[in-house]
Write a structure and sequence with these properties.
553 residues; alpha/beta; Alpha-D-Glucose-1,6-Bisphosphate, Chain A, domain 3; TATA-Binding Protein; 7-stranded mixed beta sheet; 7-stranded antiparallel beta sheet; 18 helices; 27 strands; 24% strand; binds alpha-D-glucose-1-phosphate-6-vanadate; binds cobalt (II) ion
Length: 553
């Protein structure tokens, strides 16, 4: 009898990896859909089968598997364990309760020389039976699978007729343990421990502990998602912050009904504590899978693009980056705040398409040390994913070295480098047809825009962003419509690749004011001209029927 039973009710069944926009790649390297979709017969199985047929080194290889604890996590792990055994993996490393943040997974893949990892998360999307589920695929470097791999996985799903699995009772994930399914070892480890040791190597915990114990109360919101167990051990354990510092610290299957997206809209409770109250000096939140971060000071919200610039300018405050940075990178829609700092430090600064996978080659080649995206993502070469808690610790390290408040640090920064007023306006769940029409109409107009006046300046460049990877020269085009102005301002339009309902249109707005200009405006006011102009040019209100964006960050 063969070791593996074939199930073959999948005939004719196909899964779609791409978003409804065939020319827009998902910002994530995997599949993100509603939980209901994933519960359809053989849907998840088909996608996992395509991964196992495509990922290099499956036969005899080690795989890391875990997730953010959302509804469907346990079922998916059980299914991957059985299918992994059927496909000849030598070992799957998974975690107690299946809890594993995206950055911690990246670290484990690298530490164990695994062939890659499967992270069960729809990141910042809501969870539960009526929310979303997702499967992220990471490669051997610990980073999101490059497009060559996700394209191959997608192609494979188009011809699948069967998948390989094994009957086996579920493995208990309640505690540490070692098991076997046929010849494959299943190791259930603590998903938090290794990550904590990595953080201890990068930062000076004694310095941070001393600083926050001296009248610098902090609040951290895990939004009922994966970072709870990490944050409690780090902030309340190692850094001795009072119990209760970590809010919503137990991962729940539906995130307690909240949207685990760390921004001013979805992390409102924390934002109110910091922006309206006086109890805390510092606040931070992370998303569902722990790779995003939001930083707040008392009465002060730190824009993620600024956050990357501040970390770059003050990197020498952290032991891990004392020796300097090899270079930095930001995604195209991220503001140019970090560019100004990089120039001052005389280090390289790269501009990549949206999505963390594009930083991978630069990190692997040692050309950059830090990188970030406007979408609340910051990271470094310590792993190959953005890392929410790492960013929070980095901020605390800088503040404890400088012994100042977040507001002071920001004003010092702008007084030195000037300020990039920045905002992103998201129009969510619009009909895909309308979104595509709007986008294609503007794209067609681009060549006619050169030299035209726009928001108090004139248009110096209008194109659809195309990227040549500096490491392997691969080309990625159609990454977003850019309108660049003479005075350095920019307006960018993209269609999201991670939304699951209709289409999400993102408008990115940026205006630079030099160090002797007005540095204390409200960003929405500073950007008002650009907001008005892009609305009339792209007919956003008119075509979507939406008077204002769903989310403003
Ligand atoms: C969004 C963000 C992008 C980020 C991606 C994945 O993509 O804009 O910067 O890399 O989400 O983030 P999009 O295509 O919807 O704009 V997460 O926290 O999944 O890993
Ligand atoms: Co995420």
């Amino acid at each position: 009898m063969s070791n593996s039973a074939f199930s073959s009710p999948t005939s004719g069944y196909k899964v779609a990896l791409n978003s409804p926009f065939t020319d827009q790649k998902p910002g994530t390297s995997g599949l993100r859909k509603s939980s209901k979709q994933f519960e359809e017969c053989n849907y998840l199985e088909s996608f996992i089968e395509a991964i196992f047929r495509t990922l290099p080194g499956v036969n005899g290889g080690i795989l890391v598997v875990g997730g953010d604890g959302r509804y469907g996590n346990r079922r998916a792990i059980d299914l991957i364990l059985r299918m992994g055994a059927a496909h000849g993996l030598s070992k799957i490393i998974t975690t107690v309760n299946g809890i594993l943040s995206t950055p911690a997974a990246s670290h484990l893949i690298r530490k164990h020389n695994a062939i890659g990892g499967i992270i069960l998360s729809a990141s910042h999307n809501s969870g539960g039976p009526d929310g979303d589920f997702g499967v992220k695929v990471n490669g051997a470097n610990g980073g999101p699978a490059p497009e060559s791999l996700t394209d191959a996985i997608y192609a494979c799903t188009q011809t699948l007729e069967e998948y390989k699995t094994i009957d086996h009772p579920p493995i208990l994930l309640d505690s540490l343990g070692q098991y076997s399914i046929r010849s494959m070892i299943v190791e259930v480890i603590d998903g938090v421990e290794d990550y904590i040791s990595l953080m201890q190597k990068l930062f000076d915990f004694d310095q941070i502990r001393l600083f926050i114990s001296d009248n610098f109360p902090i609040a951290f919101d895990s939004l009922n998602a994966v970072t709870g167990p990490y944050a409690r051990r780090l902030f309340e354990g190692l850094l001795k912050a009072p119990l209760g510092t970590v809010r919503n610290g137990i991962p729940l299957e539906d995130f307690g009904g909240c949207h685990p997206d760390p921004n001013l809209t979805y992390a409102k409770e924390l934002a109110d504590l910091l922006l309206k109250g006086n109890d805390y000096c510092f606040g931070a939140a992370c998303d569902g899978d722990g790779d995003r971060n939001m930083i707040l000071g008392r009465g002060c919200f730190v824009n993620p693009s600024d956050s990357l610039a501040v970390l770059t300018a003050n990197a020498n405050c952290a032991p891990a980056y004392k020796k300097g940075l090899s270079g930095v990178a930001r995604s195209m829609p991220t503001s140019a705040a970090v560019d100004v700092v990089a120039k001052d430090l005389d280090i390289a600064c790269f501009e990549t398409p949206t999505g963390w996978k594009f930083f991978g080659n630069l990190l692997d080649a040692g050309q950059i040390t830090l990188c970030g995206e406007e979408s609340f993502g910051t990271g470094s070469n310590h792993v190959r994913e953005k890392d929410g808690i790492w960013a929070v610790l980095f901020w605390l390290q800088i503040l404890s070295e400088k012994k100042c408040s977040v507001t002071d640090l920001m004003s010092q920064h702008w007084r030195r480098y000037g300020r990039h007023y920045y905002s992103r306006h998201d129009y969510e769940a619009i009909s895909s047809e309308i979104a595509l029409e709007l986008y294609e109409r503007l794209e067609l107009m681009l060549p006619t825009l050169l030299g035209k006046s726009f928001g108090g300046s004139s248009i110096s460049c209008a194109d659809n962003f195309s990227y040549i990877d500096p490491v392997n020269a691969s080309v990625t085009d159609k990454q977003g419509l850019r309108i660049l102005l003479e005075d350095g301002s920019r307006v960018i339009l993209r269609l999201s690749g991670t939304g699951t309902k209709g289409s999400t249109l993102r408008i990115y707005l940026e205006r630079y004011v030099s160090s002797n200009g007005n540095l204390n405006q409200n960003p929405q006011e500073a950007l008002a001209d650009l907001i008005k102009q892009i609305d009339s040019l792209a007919e956003i209100t008119h075509r979507t029927g939406m008077k204002k964006p769903t989310v403003i960050t």
